[in-house]
User: Which sequence fits this backbone?
């Protein structure tokens, strides 16, 4: 089984600038995370863009959809910022592709000790291998259908609706 990971940035890949006190993007951490997690999956990585999801536009979402359509793999994980992950998942879900597509992200950047990113990436890879075709959001060990999930911004978790 071959799987593709489409990298879109988000908190997953942010780093901290000690001088300015701001978060920024340099390179994706996904390859390092797979190595640290000792993953044995055959995975192809593709960087689509490195942006905060609050900066994502409909043009970005169309570009992401096009990547999913043209991807030869039928199992895809998308790393994405959590703030607008559900909106992007809806765009992909409404296209009704015959693929298993799992969105995931992190509430805390991977480079921070308390990050949930490594766990979320591992869970999303497992879900992508086992779930039937459809579009899902995977966070904190749970998965949700794209059209039955929202981010509870007060509690910092995803939940079913």
Assistant:
């Amino acid at each position: 089984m071959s799987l593709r990971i489409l990298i879109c940035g988000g908190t997953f890949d942010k780093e901290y600038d000690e001088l300015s006190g701001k978060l920024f993007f340099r390179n994706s951490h996904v390859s390092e995370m797979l190595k640290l997690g000792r993953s044995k999956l055959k995975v192809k990585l593709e960087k689509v863009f490195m942006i905060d999801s609050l900066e994502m536009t409909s043009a970005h979402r169309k570009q992401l959809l096009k990547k999913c359509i043209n991807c030869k793999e039928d199992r895809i994980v998308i790393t994405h910022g959590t703030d607008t992950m559900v909106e992007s998942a809806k765009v992909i879900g409404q296209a009704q592709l015959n693929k298993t597509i799992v969105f995931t992200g992190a509430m805390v950047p991977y480079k921070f000790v308390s990050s949930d990113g490594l766990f979320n990436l591992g869970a999303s890879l497992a879900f992508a291998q086992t779930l039937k075709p459809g579009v899902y959001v995977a966070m904190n060990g749970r998965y949700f259908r794209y059209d039955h999930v929202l981010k509870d911004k007060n509690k910092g978790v995803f939940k079913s609706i």
Notes: The mean pLDDT is 91.
